[in-house]
Amino acid sequence: MNFNLYRKATKDVRRNLDSSEPKADIVLIDPDFAQELLKRNTMNRKISQVHVKNITHDMENSDFDFNGDAIRISKDGVLLDGQQRLTSIINSNKTIPTVFVRGLEKEAMDTIDSGRKRKHSDRLAIRGISNASAVSAVLSNLVRLGKRYEGWGVITHKQLDNVLELHPRVLDSVSVTRKAFRNIENILAAIHYIGVYNNDEETANAFVQVFRDGQSTYDGDAAVFARNHLIDDMGRQNPSLRMKSNYRSKFVAQMYNKFAARKSVTTSRIPATFEVIGWDAEALGV
């Protein structure tokens, strides 16, 4: 965007923040202007630090797109909407163009953000991508594996879009692993894609097939061990004793590393790291 187009409007708005009637402009908000606006933040809900981290990450990487979302201020100058974006502007030390609406009634806050927030899978579905929820989850797993995130970490929609752009064959891996084995399809698809990426599609396909049919491919087959262990775990009567999602993903990734190396497995421990050999931040590319 050509920032010069909005400099005059920005000056005018900063001189006349209070307005008796609704007005809308496109303005540039820098950290100083963001600080000024946040001083008027007397009615907003508590800030979501996770959401602020996500927005800040996108701003720092020039991935925060202009999408028409507005900063909104009431007739008497109270900030109604935009505190998290403004906080992120300060944290990232960036100048961001945005729609700026002033002169609203305070009651307008009751209707702001009343709809369901759009998930990344919604964005994919709008683009016509099949199995959008699964694709989004697999992309998240690829980021987590590449960044070695032990938990969920900070993963933004833009980051996931970039991963899909760099690794379009992820869609094929999602199709290959559909209904392969309950509760692990998404991590299985991520692992399968990593095998494809590393020119070892044969091993990736074989790993998935073992989960489908339970047939051993070598003595002490790691995939068979993992499959049997997961079946036993799902059979536990007390749900609180079953493997948590993060551990289950780490366990399957560990078993793939052993399967690819044809290592015999008869027992397992909680993996120290969440990784698949041959996949790191450089391979991820974002």
Uncertain segments are none
Strands side by side in the biggest sheet: 1-4-2-3
Computed Rg: 24 Å
User: What's the average pLDDT?
Assistant: 88
Structural class: alpha+beta
Share in helix: 40-55%
Can you write the helix and strand succession as a string?
Answer: HEHHEEHEHHHHHHHHH
Can you count the helices? 13
Number of domains: 2
* Beta-strand fraction estimate: 5-15%
Distance between the termini: 23 Å
Largest sheet: 4 strands, mixed
Tally the beta strands. 4
If you had to describe this structure to a student in words, what would you say it looks like?
This protein has 2 domains: 104 residues, Conserved hypothetical protein from pyrococcus furiosus pfu- 392566-001, ParB domain, CATH 3.90.1530; 165 residues, no CATH class. The model has no long low-confidence stretch (mean pLDDT 88). A hairpin with a 4-residue loop joins strand 2 and strand 3. It has 286 residues and is an alpha+beta fold. Strands 1-4-2-3 form a 4-stranded mixed beta sheet. 49% of the residues lie in helices and 8% in strands.
Describe this structure in a few short sentences.
With 286 residues, the chain is α+β, with helices and mostly antiparallel strands.
Key traits:
single chain, 286 residues, alpha+beta, elongated
